[in-house]
Amino acid sequence: MPPESAIDPHAVAADLRRWAGELGFSACGIAPPAVGWDEERLMAWLRRGHQAEMAFMARHGRKRARPRQLVPGTRSVVVVRLDYAPQAADPVATLRDRTRGYVARYALGRDYHRLMRRRLQRLAERLSAAIGPFGYRAFVDSAPVLERALAREAGLGWIGKNTMLLNRRAGSLFFLGELFTDLALPTDAPAASHCGSCRACLAACPTGALVGPYQLDARRCIGYLTVEHPGPIPEALRPAVGNRIFGCDDCLLACPWNRQAPPSAEDAFQPRHGLDAPALAELFRWDEATFRERTAGSPIRRLGYERWSRNLAVALGNAPATAPVLAALQARRADPSALVREHVAWALARLGHL
Predict the structure, then answer these.
(1) In the listed set 181, 208, 224, which residue is the last one of a domain according to the structure?
(2) Which of the following is catalytic: 8, 83, 141, 217?
(3) Which of 103, 181, 259, 276 shows the smallest number of beta carbons within 10 Å?
(4) Has 276 been annotated as catalytic?
(5) Has residue 176 been placed in a domain?
């Protein structure tokens, strides 16, 4: 780390913001390595069991809210935002057409993790070239970090009632990344909330997973159930899943702040393989090799073929009982996976064709 007297921290902060923009980030802010009351909110959430089967959330406990415990010596956290709103088929129209599958908008293009980590690394390298070596760690969903709380402290937005970070210009359609540094940099003022009395996101949740303002029960969340949950989707919730086959955007689509979110200029986040409005019956005919080919470089790949098929079976069970839908389900009644077979049987029974 260079001697503190050798650098101008305000100039460094200004350079970081400028370089972040040049690297394609949508915004950059600086937070202190503390998130205050968010720690107790996290612990209360864990005590209620709202993390579902995400054991990793409890495993790291309070470390998530303590950047200095995660990376000793951290004195400032540089937080970056990257907007992702794709130019895609109308999401509301896709949700209404039950013959088509709905993929969360963030997953329509390429996986953001590598892209953002590369840019964060380049940002750190630019700073190192300017001031000399310094200590840092770059994170993009790769460590126990309360990134939304840090982003709020860095002035990038406020945490909305759906627990997402919101920004007045970008809504919540963006990714976040962090550089934990051993530099003492001037921090930004925390962003104020602009949700007011609005409850649109709570009313929009199909399964009632938003059990109150700022309270998400992952056990009922379609985003969790279709992406993180490893086993059968609870039968009572399957009708509400509708045609959502990877993630859920309903609380985002209902949020007034997202109506003015600008489309992303990133080619990497634009839809691939027609997954912004795909025909469910066609997707269910993919074999595992096709799944791997079509989802290469996509966030969907980590789901795996079995869970992808599980999700599709539920969506087909909520589709009209057309000939293509029934044929797709019948073709996989004897699927090698017990998980898939169970969901196919449910779908056929729901459509009256078991």
Answers:
(1) 181
(2) 141
(3) 259
(4) no
(5) yes
